[in-house]
Every structure is written in structure tokens, then in C-alpha cells.
Amino acid sequence: MKSKDLIMKHIILFLALALSLVNTSNAAVSVSPVHLGVAHDTRSTSLKFINDTDKESVIDVRVFKWVGQKDDGSDILEDTNSIILSRPVVMVPAHGELTIRIIVKTRTSNAEDAYRVVVTDITPAAKDGTVAVRMNSVLPLFVLNAKNSRGVLKLNDGVLTNTGDRHVRIGGYTDRNGDQVKMLRYVFPGQSISLSVQSGGDVIASDDIY
How many helices (H) and strands (E) does the chain have? Predict the structure, then answer.
């Protein structure tokens, strides 16, 4: 009897989940661009919000200093006052668009400053029983302070170290078994990452502003 009761509970949970998916609306808001950069001779960039739903969306935007990433790829973030938002809370009209400015207040002496822009949908829950698909995005923002700068990866026995003065974005690599490994990791100046790759291995990396 207990076994049957457990099965019935699982069936009920499954049906409840299926019903919630039927009443789930499409993703409320999209953002553009998904990678942000400010050149050395400018002070700001823009971020656009596009609402494809029938209701107004309320979006919260915050910026954190991006110190680096842990071994598991999670970000190390700190509070910052170096970036100003023209609107920290954005109300995007139904089927409408809205653009905010991201302004650099202060720069450091580094060739590049890194930030994370955290975008969260805080629209109040609907009263008609539908379940909104919330938007939660974490976007990279890189501020260049020098015209001539670049990231440089040095590989030594499977350890990649960035000896340059800008970040390097790793998109994948070929491991010691010859298999292609896809990943997205950022290596900041002076930081290292360990990969299952031999010296001279194939690493897909980019040191552009994004």
C-alpha cells in the first residue's frame, strides 16, 4: 500500500508540473548586447531591453567588480562604485524597448577593469495563474584603460597563466586524449587555470574586448 501511495504522489507531482508548464508564458525580456565593452577613449556603453510580452516588465540591474573565477568556474565578485547606471530599475513596456546607459565613473591604473552586470526580472507575479519565465542574466563588462594591451597565455605542464595585461577568454581545448572539450572560462592578468592539456596543446582562446 505504501508503495502505491508513493507512486500516486509522484503521478500527482508530475501532473502538477505539466499543468504549470502549460500555463507558463514565454521569456519576458531579452537583452542586447550580451557582451559589454568600453574602449579606452570612451566613458560609456548601452544596454537594451526588449519586452515581447503583453505586460510591463520590471528589471533590476546591478554591477559588481569582477575579480576572477574560482577553480569551478564560479565568479569572484565585489561591490563597486566605479560604474554608474542611468536607471538601476528598468520598467520595460509591453511589446516595447528601453535602453539604459552604463557609465564609467572611475578607472584604475590597470590596462583593463572587469565587471559583471547582473540583470534580474523582478516583475510582480501575475494574478491570472500563469507562471512567468524570469530573466536572470550575468553579462561581462570590460573597461579598457590603455590603447595597446592584450592577454597572453603561457602554457606550462597543463597550467595556463595569463602574462598579459588583459583578460583571455577560453572557449575550449583539446585534452591529452585528443578529445575536444568545450568550456567558457576567463583568465585575468596574473591568474592561472589548470587544464588536462600537454605543453603545446591546442587551446581556443581570445583576448578581444569581450
Answer: 1, 18
> Which residues make Cβ contacts (< 8 Å) with residue 3, sequence separation at least 6?
none
Strand order in the sheet with 168-174: 180-187, 168-174, 203-206
Query: Of 125, 144, 163, which closes a domain?
Result: 144
Quick: pLDDT tens for 92-121. 999 999 999 999 999 999 999 999 999 999
Structural domain span for residue 195:
153-206
10 Å CB burial of residue 36 (0-12, 13-18, 19+) is buried
- How confident is the model over 182-204, as pLDDT tens digits? 989 999 999 999 988 876 678 88
CA-to-CA distance for 25 and 128, rounded, in angstroms? 11
Q: Of the residues 144, 162, 193, which one is the last residue of a structural domain?
A: 144
Distance CA 193, CA 173 (A): 12
Phi, psi of 22 (to 5 degrees): -65, -35
Q: Are 187 and 151 in contact (CB under 8 A)?
A: yes
Measured distance CA(104)–CA(42) in Å, rounded: 9
Instruction: Please report, in angstroms and rounded to a whole number, the separation of the first and last CA atoms in the chain.
Output: 59
Q: How many structural domains comprise the chain?
A: 2
Q: Are 91 and 35 in contact (CB under 8 A)?
A: no
